[in-house]
Design goal:
The complex is a heterodimer of chains A (about 110) and B (about 110).
Chain A lengths: L3 E4 L2 E4 L4 E8 L5 E7 L6 E7 L2 E5 L6 E7 L2 E7 L7 E8 L9 E2 L3 E5 L1
Parallel strand pairs in A: 2-11
Antiparallel strand pairs in A: 1-3, 3-8, 4-5, 4-9, 5-6, 7-8, 9-10, 9-11
Chain B lengths: L3 E2 L4 E5 L4 E7 L4 E9 L6 E7 L4 E4 L2 E6 L4 E6 L8 E9 L6 E2 L3 E6 L1
Parallel strand pairs in B: 2-11
Antiparallel strand pairs in B: 1-3, 3-8, 4-5, 4-9, 6-7, 7-8, 9-10, 9-11
Classes of the chains: A mainly beta (about 110), B mainly beta (about 110).
């Protein structure tokens, strides 16, 4: 299984809602990532988990809260988002190592904040 | 300050011809480079990578060339096929760092 899956594919939420994005991989990768991609821009790293522990937080606002319940799952909890947070949220995974390595991406969740 | 630059936002080539996508970088600490392909509504798909100890890596129709002195890399696709039409992102990585730094992408269109 060489796939990273993400649910939901699309999400529309109001600024007062609480929602979660989910990501799953079964490649035995011990590093997992959240990226944010705005239209016509490259992906930007948000968080990195290594062996289920948060190792990088790229100064992301606290309204985004990541969680790694086990080595296959990665969640991103969303609360009190702003319209400018509307974007494609990409999950990725890779083998653990001293570098980023080849990261395998999921299809993303298209988030719209009203 | 963009550390990875793809200066051509778009490229159009005829089917069967060579596609050459270019990427420049400024950070001399980058030592591993990757190319990703992205279709609309999908995540980026890893294509090919190259370490800074090499100057060329080939995988089927795809070849990546690295010129360290010029801080430049390129992706060659030969022969180009209509199914190659997508956005191509160049990415770079620094030893000891987890993050990939992406370029802004080049939209390739292969005309039948």
């Amino acid at each position: 299984d060489t796939e990273v899956t993400q649910t939901p594919k699309h999400l529309v939420m109001g600024m007062t809602n609480k929602k979660s994005l989910k990501c799953e991989q079964h490649m035995g990768h011990r590093a997992m990532y959240w990226y944010k991609q705005k239209a016509k821009k490259p992906p930007e790293l948000m968080f990195v988990y290594s062996y289920e522990k948060l190792s990088i937080n790229e100064s992301v606002p606290s309204r985004f809260s990541p969680e790694c319940p086990n080595s296959s799952l990665l969640n991103l909890h969303l609360h009190a988002l702003q319209p400018e947070d509307s974007a494609l949220y990409l999950c990725a995974s890779s083998q653990e190592g001293p570098r980023g390595n080849e990261q395998f991406f999921g299809p993303g969740t298209r988030l719209t904040v009203l | 300050d963009q550390q990875v630059k793809q200066n051509s936002p778009s490229l159009s080539v005829q089917e069967g011809r060579i596609s050459i996508l270019n990427c420049d970088y400024t950070n001399s600490m980058f030592d591993y480079f990757l190319w990703y392909k992205k279709y609309p509504a999908e995540g980026p798909t890893f294509l090919i990578s190259i370490s800074s100890i090499k100057d060329k890596n080939e995988d089927g129709r795809f070849t990546v060339f690295l010129n360290k002195s010029a801080k430049h890399l390129s992706l060659h696709i030969v022969p180009s096929q209509p199914g190659d039409s997508a956005v191509y992102f160049c990415a770079a990585n620094e030893m000891g760092r987890r993050a990939l730094t992406f370029g802004s992408g080049t939209r390739l269109q292969v005309q039948p």
